[in-house]
Amino acid sequence: MSEQKRGRVIGGVGKPVPKKDAPALLTGKPVYTADIAPKDCLCVKLLHSPHAHAMIEEIDVSRAQKMPGVACILTYKDVPDVRFTQAGQTYPEFSPYDRLILDRHLRCVGDPVAIVAAETEKQALAAMKLIRVKYQVLEAILDAKQAMDNQTLIHPEENWRALVPSCGADNRRNLVAMGEDAHGDVEAELAACDIVIDQEYSTQANQQCMMETFRAFTRMDYYGRLEIVSSTQVPFHVRRIIATALDIPKSRVRVVKPRIGGGFGAKQTAVCEQYPAIVTMKTGRPAMIIYTREESMTLSSPRHAMTMHVRLGAMKDGTIRAIDLHTLSNSGAYGEHGPTTVGLSGHKSIPLYTHHMKAFRFAWHTVYTNTMSAGAYRGYGATQGLFAVESAVNELAHALNMDPAALREHNIVREGEAMPAYYGETAASCAVDRCIARAKEMIGWEKKYPARTLENGHIRAVGMALAMQGSGISNVDTGAVMIRLGDDGIYNMSIGATDMGTGCDTILAQMAAQSLECPVDNITVHGVDTDTSPYDCGSYASSTTYVTGMAVVKTCEELRKKIIRVGAQLLDCAEGEVLFEGDRVVKADASVSVTLAEIANAHMMAGYEDISACISSGSPVSPPPFMCGCAEIDLDPMTGEVNVVDYVGVVDCGTVINPNLAMRQTEGGLLQGIGMALYERPTLDHLGRTVSNSFLQYKIPARIDAPSIRVEFEPSYEPTGPFGAKSIGEIVINTPSPAIADAVYNACGVRVRHLPITSEKVLLGERE
Amino acid sequence: MAKYKNYVLARSIEEAYELNQKKSSVIVAGNMWLRMCGMNKQTAVDLSLLGLDRIEKTQDGFVVGAMTTLRALETDTALNDAFGSVFARALAPIVGTQFRSTATVGGSVYSRFGFSDVSALLLALDAEVVLHQRGVVKLSEYQLEAWDRDIITHIRIPGGQRASVQSVRVSGTDIPTLVCAAAKSEKGIRIVLGARPARAVIAADGLKLVDAQNIHIIEEIAGRTAFGTNLRAGEAYRRRIAPVLMARAVKGCMECEAKEAAEDEC
Amino acid sequence: MNVEFMLNGRKVSALIEADDSLYTVLRALGMYSVKCGCETTNCGLCTVHMDGKAVLSCSVPAARCAGHEITTLEGMQDEAKLLGSCLAGEGAEQCGFCAPGMMMNVFALAKENPHATDDEIDAFLAGNLCRCSGYVSQRRAVKKYLSIKAGEVCV
Fold first, then answer.
1. Would you say A61 and A129 are in contact if contact means Cβ atoms under 8 Å apart?
2. How many CB atoms lie within 10 A of CB A81?
3. Do C84 and A27 touch (CB under 8 A)?
4. Any chain A CB within 8 A of the CB of B195?
5. pLDDT of res. A527
6. Domain A4-30+474-618 maps to which CATH number in 3.30.870.10, 3.40.50.300, 3.30.365.10, 3.40.630.10?
7. What is the largest CA-CA distance in chain C?
8. pTM of this prediction?
9. ipTM, interface predicted TM-score of the complex
10. Phi and psi for A462 in degrees, rounded to 5?
């Protein structure tokens, strides 16, 4: 396909096209939820539970209700007794239906006790102070290890419901999920191994910390329907969730997604929409909720904290024969994403070492505790599992006195191999071997491994880790794309995928331009409105480029056929006699042609078929992207301070659709991973209150913490992906924790198995 | 969020002082930490029109207006020339330039934050606090007192000293896990430990150079100092790194002095 | 109470409450580029200029602004387009929510230190958090913008 055609830059795949919304974002235009809210929105505030586990004995809102400006105050007495889940997942959700909009039973600090809506924020807060609540404080379970079969039940309610019973949820045992997946005889293989690494690792409930906190506004539209404008990754799921929560028909709900100030998975959960929604339903007034940063840090959807027990068996020559992994995942007070995240901890870590592996076992339990409900965060369980498995692999290398890079090269999955631990899927595209080789070159592994001491006494050391992820959820995720031909040959593309800053509007337009042989500017993209956009499960699970991208390709194929048909009709010849050339349809012998503009304008007259197409796509497989990350750290042995001075990431995400945006995803994800490894300390006090409740107490990396981050791609070609592409969004957060942990070990001999890696642990050793 | 009913831009320090005698009043300086504290007050008294934002060189040092911003301390040439750029280096990690452009030295000193880099440095430099009513008080005394209703108008910093600030932080812009400031004057070396996490204390004063450079003596001084535990680190960790930072701060003073001597020769 | 100040070169008068922040008032006046990302002065999203200096509008009492000059990104559209093109060329804006505050601080940097090095850029902008980009591309974009301003590179 020629790139330059009659003076136009054609197609877009592989080009660093600027994001379509960049001019608006970078001149400060009002494009985010709060910017476009009606001026007369009621301000919605939540009264939060001060207790980790309690029953409301009495609640008196009478004085508060009389305060100036108060429109309504709602308690558990005012909400439908219908349980639902906030998790943005395809129906029937794996997450149990275990919550009400407001409940008498409070299950974590922060759980909403009452909803206050007033004309202004100050009025709402003033009224909230006058709500009188008498709590019966209950025994709280804060430790996930104590949760299963505890006498205290977190969800004793009769109408608790698991829609997918096979995930093993049991509210009588505080269980959100349990299960096991195995292949071969893992015990026999481990017994036959020369060495078994047997260790426990754990990761924290990290916060996504997108710059725009959770927020939504709601209003009744002119048809008397509830319109929700929300900063969400999952508009279609929000429609179902809110209709369920309010117990109203789904036809009465419309969800619109404007520009979003970041999500990273946080907004794959309908954290806040139900509160303004019920206020609007009760009052008929527009209502808006904007979570404070504190609310976003204390009542949101952080990463599931997991404790993982790994047994990794190998022979003396480094041949890995068996992996046995048990994961205990803390879902918190509710089950959002609890059954699904835990699965990735094994299914997206163990398959990396498929090559010689004879057996594996992966078992899991996800439990309820009286802590904030967890949710989806970039990496979605794979991050946790990879910290454990990659750390164990590094420990194995040290135990065998082998180079961890060589150990990996010996054991990694090869292209074309079937991966029993990855649902039996085949690694149809896999360049992880080249990723390792290139990452080693870039960081200078041969020279720098393991460590060297600088003149100032600091130690420089390197560490490595691998990662994989998926590309969408196989057989579940689906996205549709609609493209219409308009005046003078423009294309209007409607998608249900949600650009949350990642640039998917642009990337999908690049693919459409490539398929339709036109400039990217000729494709307009429309964001999501559940009334008008084609269905898409939403932007999560690393699905958009791969799943929705394929829908773009299929839609364009269909559209080309229609353009050809009308073109042939206009040229008065048979379809088979003409070709589509992007800006015209031409007879194969080049004798006559008709421009796209002429075709477009003709089809808007009587007598021609409509030229539009809408095709959905899903995939029976979820091809993993792969990557290798190498950290070089500077460690001060006198204080235990660790700084990452260089981080190299080499990624196989198949074909790179937009190198700039793929690079930004990688750099941003790596820095989030570095934050998770070193700085971010989600902390509860002994009463279950989140102490790390602000950017003051929960430190995400600032500019001066950002090391040199160097990224390259080692593309493979994924046969089932659009233009050979796989996913990029999530995998990039997975390598820093294990890579930095090993660099620390290489520097000073301290092995940190429980994140984060604090200077205190580095200096004093890890305490149990 | 702090709440006020009235906001008064004081026209004179006397007016500000009078207004501030009521318990229901509060002085607004940088309004950085104040706004977060959630206090409910009748009257907020603003000092921004009183010209208290100047840094003046005097015969024996510097007089700094209470409303001088941290950013001004950081970028003032005369001040940094006089103290080997210690203000520039010590204040740079505080949140960000915008924060430091409105946060004031008076606000920091009045609040006696345990984590304050500013207080630790000023304490090491043996600064004095000029109060509208009481007059001049040593920061070392003021630091220990409870909050009162007097108003800081100026901070005096004695000249002729070399200082160094060393800290450990979770991340580059975090408040310190532990901060140590050392200053060398005619009277010897003074070492201050802040973010213990409690209020900064003078761990040693009038130390002879030879003793300050003796790690055993430094360790013994650290051993006498009280440390605690918070989100950022435990008591044992602070105890362990305190002598490290103290030794580095002493070394920093000496390097600063040596560098200036070399420059003088040029 | 009433407060009068210059906003983006125009005199404005706003009815405020004693404890309103400049941030609240600016949003009410339709300056939607100004964002809020925290309550603890840590994020830098609400950065505007007060008399040409970058400040956190969340922490500036609105009442203190009387007679002062306040500038938001709405008042610096030409500069925004120039710096914006540098950022967009890298894809460095990502979600864009932190961009207006960061850009306002870049303009302050350009005034104060027009030839800033990489480390100086990072130090000056340290109070502008971004969770998307990993910062390295923003550093390059800011560098490019400063070179254009210094006449070292043609647009």
1. no
2. 10
3. yes
4. no
5. 84
6. 3.30.365.10
7. 49
8. 0.97
9. 0.98
10. -120, 160
